[in-house]
Structures are given as structure tokens and as C-alpha cells.
Specification:
The complex is a heterodimer of chains A (about 325) and B (about 110).
Chain A (H helix, E strand, L loop, with lengths): L1 H9 L12 H7 L11 E5 L25 H14 L3 E5 L9 H8 L5 E6 L11 H8 L3 E5 L5 H8 L3 H14 L11 E5 L10 H16 L5 E4 L6 H9 L3 H10 L14 E4 L5 E2 L2 H5 L31 H4 L6
Helix pairs in contact in A: 3-4
Chain B lengths: L20 H14 L7 H15 L2 H13 L4 H33 L2
Helix pairs in contact in B: 2-3, 2-4
Classes of the chains: A alpha/beta (about 325), B mainly alpha (about 110).
Chain lengths: ~325, ~110
């Protein structure tokens, strides 16, 4: 099984450049056997439909995409969550808010876990112009993980679309007003910052301090934690890298920044990710590359429980994005 | 086209230690320590380095510290303002010598 996966990863030429050291080789050179730990998080990708068309999107999501998780698949996800008992359930997309079954999903999944998270681009939270979804999130104590790449308007808009910076600020204020990100409320609001180009992210700790200071000072906005992630060189971000002549240089940067200390904290070791069609993967990036968990597509309805501790993780060269510098947890 | 400055030479910086390894080691240890977080943050130090890079007009340093500034979370507005500080000091340095010019001229003139 391990050999098959390695060959599949190395031969996955659609996603690779031939002159880059394959990720598996780097693991072997560092005597690392990348295996799953106890799986504690179920990540659910509700589909590729999104109201934004961000240049760094690894899934090529956007308003023209029609692939979304059906109500039937959501029910399969709920059954899986019941029989596997995940500490965290993490909802992502596309924009999860654009799935017409989002409210139903929150109702049936939130009671099945201690920590229920929704990844939002912020503008989609306000897309319906109704407060129903935001109120539902608050009622279920859903942790909001919001994309907020930069405190600079032009950097944000160039990555996420015209007007998106001001829209994000407006929605953050709205979330603060109902208690999200405010001390003592228990309503957690976390931000995610991705670099707005072919360069690595800044230090998470330093960025959090700076964002907290500036967001408070300029817009009186508060949040709990900030995560700083590198962009994966796949999907729409790869197209941009290629069009702008940055692909080779960016990949070299990721490869040369390989940090073996990042391995222990990799999200793929403790997470199982379900695609909008209901198939299981080791992470959302592997969904984008169709690199399924265990090397072959398995539907969630056929999964007896969480993936076994010690089982192999499917890897390819995009994995360098999670192991470069401080890593991606 | 042949050029004195080649981008592929930048990563070879450390090879400068080939014929004077002990001095290079001292220099690179010092260099690394200078850019660590201290009373100034790594981001602030990268902005200073970018400014100095433009002052000494070193293409290698401009390349390296443009990337460093972006990776430390700076943006083009901040980086451009830093260059105006460079321009102000360089321009100011020329103009302030005008006092010396006036002093000499006034001493010589009736």
C-alpha cells in the first residue's frame, strides 16, 4: 500500500514539476514516516460554490461552480460523525454559507461534537442579507474561522476581489456586535491570514499581535486567534503562479523551507476530510488534487469509523506548503 | 544578456566564505543575530534593510528585502513610504550641504 501511494504521488505529474525533489523523497531523506495519529477532526467540504473568486483558492471555487454537497450526503456525514465521535467538526467550502442546506447541517451536526467550526470568507455570511444564519451560529456556539489575509485594503482586494476588504470589516464589526471575538462571551472568532502573492506567510505570533493592535485602533474590531498559512500551489493559485511566472520559484521556496519540526503538528495526521460528493481524503488540498485517503475513493457511508491510527497519508508535492517554515496545522 | 548582476548569484552569498571561512562565519553569525526579533521587530528591521538596500542601490538586497518585507507582513504602501524616507534623507543630505556652499561663498564674496 505504501509503495503504491508513493508511486501514485511521484507520478502525479499533473500537479508536479519534474525538477522538484518529490515530497516523499524529502520525507525519506529526513527519515520521516508520515502516518496518521488519532483522528479527532472531521472536516466537511460543502462544495465549490462561492460568492468570491479568490486568486489563492486551491479549489478553484467561485460563483460559477455548481458542485455542492446534497442533503443526502449531509445525512451520511451525520451518521459517520455519530459512529466516530469527533472532537471537532470543521465546515468548509467554497463558501459553506452558499449551500442551501447549511442551516440543516448545523442543526444536525453541531450537537455531535464539542467544537463545531465554520470557515467563512466573511462576505458570504452576509450574502443572504438575513441574520438567520449568524444567529444560528451564535445559538450553537459555532467557532467562526474567517479569512482575513491582510490589514491592507489593496492587498486584500487584489487577492479576494474589489470591495472585499471593506465588506470583511463590516461583517467583523457585525460579529463583534453580537459577541463574537469579545472577551467573556465564549463566542470564538479566529482569523486566517494568507500571503497575497508568491511568498511565505509572516510569523503567526507577530502577525496576530499586529492585526489585533491595528484592527482595534482603526476599526475597533476584536478577535481571538490568528492563523497564518502558506498558499498551496494548486487550483486557481497554481494558475496564477504559472501565468505570473512565479511557479518554479515559489515551489523552490517551499521546498527549501522544508521544516521537519512541522511534521508532528500537520493537520492531516488528525483530520479526515469529506468532499462535497462524500468521499474521504486526508485533507482539503488532497480533495483539490483528487488524492484520496488510502489511495482509492471510499464513500463516507462505507467508512466504519475514523481512519486508523498509524495508517499512511497520501502525499504529493503540494504538501510542501504545509511543511515549509512554521508549517500548517 | 550578460550582466554583472545575476539573480542566481544571490543564493550563493554564503560562498563568499570560501577563502576566508572564519571571517565569513563571524559575519553571518552577526548578520543572523541582527535580524532577530529584538527591541525592533523582524518586520521593522526588514523595512530598514529595504531602505538601506535602496540607499546603497544593491539589486541583490532589493530583491531579498522586498521578499522579506512581504513575508514579514508589510505592504507596498509601507514599503513605498520607507523609500520616501530614503529619498528625503538623501535629498536632504544634498541640500543641507548648501549651507557649507553659502558659508564658503559668503566668506569669499565682497
Amino acid at each position: 500500500m505504501e509503495t503504491d501511494l508513493n508511486i501514485k504521488a511521484i507520478n502525479n505529474t499533473h500537479h508536479e514539476l519534474p525538477d522538484v525533489i518529490p515530497f516523499n523523497t524529502t520525507l525519506a531523506d529526513n527519515r520521516i514516516n508520515l502516518l496518521r495519529d488519532k483522528t479527532t477532526t472531521l472536516q466537511v467540504n460543502l462544495g465549490l460554490l462561492c460568492n468570491q473568486e479568490c486568486k489563492h483558492c486551491h479549489l478553484d471555487a467561485g460563483p460559477g461552480r455548481t458542485e455542492i454537497m446534497s442533503k443526502e450526503t449531509i445525512e451520511h456525514v451525520a451518521s459517520y460523525a455519530k459512529r466516530s465521535e469527533f472532537r471537532t467538526i470543521d465546515i468548509t467550502g467554497g463558501a459553506p454559507e452558499m449551500n442551501p442546506n447549511i442551516n440543516y447541517l448545523i442543526d444536525i451536526l453541531a450537537p455531535l461534537t464539542k467544537r463545531f467550526m465554520l470557515r467563512s470568507n466573511l462576505s458570504a455570511l452576509d450574502y443572504s442579507k438575513s441574520n438567520y444564519l449568524i444567529d444560528l451560529l451564535k445559538k450553537n456556539n459555532v467557532v467562526i474561522v474567517a479569512s482575513f489575509p491582510s490589514i491592507n485594503e489593496s492587498q486584500t482586494n487584489s487577492q479576494r476581489g474589489k470591495g472585499m476588504f471593506n465588506k470583511s470589516v463590516e461583517v467583523l464589526k457585525k460579529l463583534n456586535a453580537i459577541g463574537y471575538g469579545m472577551e467573556g462571551t465564549g463566542l470564538e472568532l479566529n482569523l486566517v491570514s494568507n500571503p497575497s502573492g508568491a511568498f511565505l506567510p509572516s510569523s503567526q505570533d507577530q502577525t496576530e499581535i499586529r492585526f489585533k493592535k491595528i484592527l482595534k485602533k482603526k476599526w475597533n474590531i476584536s478577535f481571538n486567534n490568528l492563523y497564518s498559512f502558506a498558499n498551496a500551489p494548486i487550483g486557481r493559485f497554481r494558475y496564477w503562479l504559472e501565468d505570473s511566472g512565479n511557479y518554479s520559484q515559489y515551489l523552490e521556496k517551499l521546498v527549501s523551507g522544508f521544516n521537519s519540526c512541522s511534521i508532528d503538528g500537520l493537520m492531516c495526521r488528525t483530520l479526515v476530510s469529506v468532499s462535497w460528493e462524500g468521499y474521504v481524503y486526508d485533507c482539503d488540498f488532497n480533495i483539490a488534487c483528487d488524492l484520496p485517503l488510502g489511495g482509492e475513493r471510499i464513500h463516507i457511508s462505507d467508512m466504519p469509523g475514523a481512519p486508523e491510527e498509524g495508517s499512511i497519508i497520501a502525499v504529493a508535492n503540494h504538501c510542501y506548503a504545509c511543511t515549509s517554515g512554521m508549517g500548517f496545522t | 544578456m550578460e550582466t554583472y548582476y545575476k539573480p542566481e548569484d544571490l543564493p550563493k552569498f554564503e560562498e563568499i566564505g570560501k577563502y576566508a571561512p572564519e571571517l565569513a562565519e563571524k559575519f553571518f553569525d552577526y548578520y543572523g543575530a541582527v535580524f532577530e526579533d529584538g527591541a525592533l521587530s523582524e518586520r521593522e528591521k526588514a523595512l530598514i534593510a529595504l531602505s538601506v538596500a535602496h540607499t546603497v542601490q544593491c539589486p541583490y538586497c532589493i530583491d531579498a528585502y522586498t521578499q522579506a518585507c512581504l513575508e514579514k507582513g508589510s505592504n507596498l504602501e509601507e514599503m513605498t513610504e520607507a523609500l520616501h524616507v530614503v529619498a528625503a534623507i538623501r535629498g536632504g543630505a544634498s541640500l543641507v550641504h548648501g549651507i557649507q556652499m553659502r558659508n564658503i561663498s559668503e566668506k569669499l564674496s565682497i
